[in-house]
Amino acid sequence: MNIFDDKTNTSTEKIIKAAKGQIPADLVIKNAKVTNVLSEEIYTADIAITDGIIAGVGENYIGNQEIDVMGAYVSPSFIGGHVHLESSMLMASEVAKLVVPSGTTTVVADPHEIANVMGLQGISYMREATKNLPLDVYMTLPSCVPATELETSGVDLNSYDLALVIDAPWVLGIAEMMNFPGVINCDSSVLSKIQLGKDCNKCVDGHAPHLSGKDLCAYVAAGVCSDHECTTSDEAIEKLRLGMYLMVREATGARDLEALIPVLKAHNTRKCMFVTDDRHPKHLAKHISRMVKKSVKLGLNPIKAIQMASLNTAEYFGIKNLGAIAPGYKADLLVLNDLETFEPKMVFKNGKLTAQDGKMLVNTNSNSVPALRGSVNIKYLYHEDLKIKAKTDIVKTINVTPKTLITKRTDEKILIKDGFALPDIANDVLKIAVIERHKATGNIGLGFVKGFGLKSGAIASTVAHDSHNMIVIGTNDDDMYYAAVELVKSQGGKIIVENGKTLAHLKLPIAGLLSDKSAEDVQYNISKLEEAAQKIGCKIDDPFMSMAFLSLSVIPELKITDKGLIDVNSFEVTDLFV
């Protein structure tokens, strides 16, 4: 910014004069109960806003426009500290429609999913798609593309690639460093990405489930600043003691707030924030506000909760003048009737009334986004490619644990026919396949999974963390084959089939991850998927979310990628048969 820019100086002078009461402010919110996260108190005052900036907080301000909130609470709006927008399967404009009315006006997005498919082109796409929205979208640069060498991603992003965009003002740091074994074992390519963030004075987010003791010390000493994988109080306390920021997560598939609330109530929360990570559309509508409400209901002080949802997040990421109500701060504000429900009566973005009573007041459909190439490219698939030649009748099986990303290994008996291993449907042991879909390598990882409960048919998806190869679970090879072929035809999506017929299909043609339709259309198709899942006997509430993480080879204990069955504890491909 040119400090001699007349336009900038004129704006600053206008704000100064409005702060002093010499000229009317653009907008004054009158008679507000100011929820001050800086001083941790609540008091009555007027809030004067000029050029989208809070000019003053005090008494008797006059504005060209005045809104008397008659004693309602006014708080800073909410910030989502770590989110994968792609996990919503929606375009960014549709995400904004859902989250802004509930009070989230800023998010820090990790475009890790689309980067695994499209690389820098995918990051560029997300940047273009998030411009000019009533939702500020900052980004952290994906650190693990691919997450490990145990899978095939669409591209491989190294530190030199990330250096091309690290200095952009919308880039706040390096995203979750999932390859914690690479960090603590001094992998030079991993450490170079951390060093890039440190050299640019930007944060480095972490991802280290169950890491503890001296290994955790090594991880933190390397420069990793935060973690969103804590699932127990002991784990959270240890990481806070070592100086890490605690990102408390409430995703669709992993909800940790209730387990961590004792830590928030008993310890200093200034290094704690709320994040949503991966959420489906039906869980976006309340977003951060639901976490604030839940934490207060569980006994957390309301100001502490709002602080975690605003100031703490802004300070961690180094976003200047955001997350509080004070002169010079951005006028991103919420008007709340109470500090219990946290349902905003009004949402102000840059001093403009953007949503009211749960409804958007501005148009988000004007964004134009660039086109992307097709991304579902698999080698010609034959029925025989899904067959597993039996060595024994006991297999290492991925056992799904409800409401957590962590899986367990169990040894299960399978059926054998004509020398091939088959699912044992009666014992809920189903076949699973991960089909490489970026480079047509022909890689297919085959194994067995327990916990889904399918009695017939198959389910398949091109959303499979982190490389997003095609993942298929089924009771028989014919339906698994049919499902895979249909996803190639639609260039991505989620599908449920039975007896060679499609029961439900959500098409995701943008990188195999995103729909080009409205949120309402996507939610309708998701409901059809849920109905179809029940029809074929699925006993998991959200099978696609659970399935999507079965290929994530950085979360214990047993996972599967296109390269085979992965023992996460030893970080290597393991034999399927016991």
Defining key terms:
elongated, TIM Barrel, nine-stranded mixed beta sheet, alpha/beta, 578 residues, Urease, subunit C, domain 1, eight-stranded mixed beta sheet
How large, in whole angstroms, is the Cα Rg? 25 Å
**What spatial form do the alpha-carbon principal axes imply?**
elongated
Mean pLDDT level: 94
Largest sheet: 9 strands, mixed
CATH class of the largest domain: Alpha Beta
Distance between the first and last residues' Cα = 64 Å
Structural class computed from helices and strand pairing: alpha/beta
What is the CATH architecture assignment of the largest domain? Alpha-Beta Barrel
CATH superfamily of the largest domain: Metal-dependent hydrolases
- Please indicate the count of domains: 3
Total number of helices = 16
Helix % is 25-40%
Number of strands: 30
Give the low-pLDDT segments.
1-5
> CATH fold name of the largest domain, please?
TIM Barrel
Q: What portion of residues belong to β-strands?
A: 25-35%
3D structure, described in words:
The structure is a single chain. By secondary structure, the chain is of the alpha/beta class. It has 3 domains: 6-71, Urease, subunit C, domain 1, CATH 2.30.40.10; 77-322, Metal-dependent hydrolases (TIM Barrel); 383-573, no CATH class. It has 16 helices and 30 strands. The strands form 6 sheets. Strands 1, 2, 3, 4, 5, 14, 15, 16 and 17 form a 9-stranded mixed sheet that branches. Helix 3 (112-118) packs across helix 4 and helix 11 (287-297) packs antiparallel against helix 12 (302-308). It is elongated, with a radius of gyration of 25 Å. The model is unreliable at 1-5 (pLDDT under 50).
